[in-house]
């Protein structure tokens, strides 16, 4: 009987994964329904999110049971059964937003026990920008997962009913409230079909219609919305060389967009732009801080995608080696 290959989890930070080609990683990380043996894959997963501070993680020597006991509730996320960690991160980040703000398109944010009128206790401190997922599937301890590898792993690989995250700047367990279940829930709107405004935004990004794109954003459409292939407006604008739209999205959108990957190939916006040899767009993305090291499902970096264009390859390679303050004047912008 064919069985699903199990990902190795014996090394902290998953450093051994660097030695394996990304395509094989995606194969090993494939959701259960992609194999010949049938498995029950739920449509939705309801996950309690708990955070652990870096100080506690180091102090307790990664002891799984002790850390589980002192973890602080953050909230609950409801995700697809085949959700990868990169997408799950977006849901968890939504837990940090004020519930009274305009709702993010495609998501519903609410208190778990709405009938009571008073939210139940949960962690009052916001997550730091630099938090990591923890793999809780091993018997004895938690293991940190490299953020650069999140798009290669599914939520079901690292947890069951609860997902644990390592907050590098978070409060100690004794400083947060752990009374009751977390109060805030983030879940997709039923069915989550694209609205007409969302479709218009993605169409505008692909065609280069800046006025339509800005109007969609003004009406409250999130720039994080993605099409069926997982492409955001930034992916589409970058691939088609629309520098004015790319610049606008970088100014108005979340930093998450920079290294967000699509579902089909694992490409970031920079991968798309480099593949299509969009010089000006590549420069905009690099200057904004897009990763030059992130690999797609084929194990290729943006530099690899630029092969065939010596000027672009040279520029991207130089930026891999250059410090953050280095000048970007060595890439000629095409008119």
From TrEMBL:
The keyword Kinase applies. Residues 314-328 have a biased composition (Polar residues). PROSITE patterns: ANK_REP_REGION, ANK_REPEAT. Residues 314-335 are annotated as: Disordered. It holds the Pfam family Ank_2. GO terms for biological process: protein K6-linked ubiquitination. It comes from the Eukaryota. Signal peptide: none annotated. ANK repeats lie at residues 229-256, 265-297. Keywords: ANK repeat, Kinase, Repeat, Transferase. The keyword Repeat applies. InterPro entries: Ankyrin_rpt, Ankyrin_rpt-contain_sf, DGKI-like_dom. One of its GO terms (molecular function) is ATP-dependent diacylglycerol kinase activity. Gene3D superfamilies: Ankyrin repeat-containing domain. Residues 44-167 form the Diacylglycerol kinase iota-like domain. GO terms for cellular component: BRCA1-A complex; BRCA1-BARD1 complex. It catalyses: a 1,2-diacyl-sn-glycerol + ATP = a 1,2-diacyl-sn-glycero-3-phosphate + ADP + H(+). PANTHER family: ANKYRIN REPEAT DOMAIN-CONTAINING PROTEIN 39-RELATED, BRCA1-ASSOCIATED RING DOMAIN PROTEIN 1. This is Diacylglycerol kinase iota isoform X1.
